[in-house]
Design goal:
Layout: H1 2-17, H2 22-40, H3 45-49, H4 51-69
Amino acid sequence: MIQWFSKFLDQASEFLAHRKGLLPLVGILFILLNLVIVLIWPASIFATANILLHLGLVVALFGLMLSWAL
């Protein structure tokens, strides 16, 4: 299990090292998707809990920190 996880991290870091803006871009897309959902379906669980907004913020911040480290 640990060898699999180590191999996965190596491959993911190699992939993301050449695409530093990918995770922040995905995070921004999640945030914009949350805006669309709030405007179209304001009573849905995604709109009331702002799940995609929070997920997008976490992904974008993680992507910025990871790109800084790579």
